[in-house]
Amino acid sequence: MRAVVFAYQEVGFVCLEALLEAGVEVGCLFTHEDDPDEEIWFRTPAALAGQHGIPVFTPENIKDEKWTEAVRDLRPDVIFSFYYRKMIPNSILEIPPVGAFNLHGSLLPQYRGRCPVNWVIIAGEEKTGVTLHSMVEKPDAGDIVAQREVTIGFDDDVLSVYGKLVEAAGSLMRDILPKMKDRTFTRSPQTGPSSYFGGRKPEDGLIDWGRDAMTIYNLTRAVTHPYPGAFTYLDGRKLFIWKAYPVESSADAPPGMVISEDPLLVNAASGALQLISLQVEGESETDAAGFVLSHTLKNTILGGHP
Hints:
- This protein is of the alpha/beta class.
- The protein has helices at 9-21, 45-51, 65-74, 90-93, 116-122, 158-181, 213-222, 288-294; strands at residues 2-7, 25-30, 56-57, 78-82, 99-104, 112-113, 127-134, 144-151, 196-197, 230-234, 237-247, 258-261, 264-267, 272-280, 286-287.
- It contains eight helices and 15 strands.
- The longest helix has 24 residues, at 158-181.
- The protein is 27% helix and 26% strand.
- Strands 3-2-1-4-5-7-8 form a seven-stranded mixed β-sheet.
- It has two domains: 2-196, Rossmann fold; 203-294, Roll (Methionyl-tRNA Fmet Formyltransferase, Chain A, domain 2).
- Helix 1 packs parallel to helix 2 (45-51), helix 1 (9-21) packs parallel to helix 6 (158-181) and helix 5 packs antiparallel against helix 7.
């Protein structure tokens, strides 16, 4: 079986690895240039492709007709997309006789769209997963070929959940590839309630202390490292909260007020948030005890804007 692969990030790496282990001939890899402003914490598919002599392309505009012609010339049986960040045009998706398939980081039809791993944690979900599905013009809407579920624990954050998804993605691909090679795999229409979420920007990490502590906790763990982080403001300076826990509290204090320094607690609309690791913009990240030593916090109200 001959494939053309569109891939990026750690999921892209492990899925490309699964293809190569299964003896799939990979004609080329389409991927992305690493962004200097992004924390590159993952292995890149481009590095793996380079080790195997696979041609690598990083087009700015995948919709340019020359890329359709390039894929057509390779005569792939199948196209795979693993966390590739651009919409692949129909002119390419229609080329392979077996089909074009995308690996999405949720249990479709829930959490279609961008940033599903962040959104499921923000929503407080207790499970998520990966779905291999046919690619159609509408994002994440094609028939399901295979799914793998993972659990989300209370202490999980975005990186630990992503690690579970990486493992699930590799396992799913190793299981389904033999069926795809001999054409015995099946496709099932997506059924049941669906949801769609858009991309996220760093400013979406702003904490609303008027929400309950559990909701704020879910935000902090959904956008912590390697993402831009949840933040509030301290004396007009951006304060990132990288790790925190919700705790019970009946303090008679406004939302956002620091009600204790040991432990470091901030009141919410319901309950309080215990800050574990935090960082004022321009300073080093530190634990709560170290932060209290260098900043005046008692009865300070966090929030607002600079």
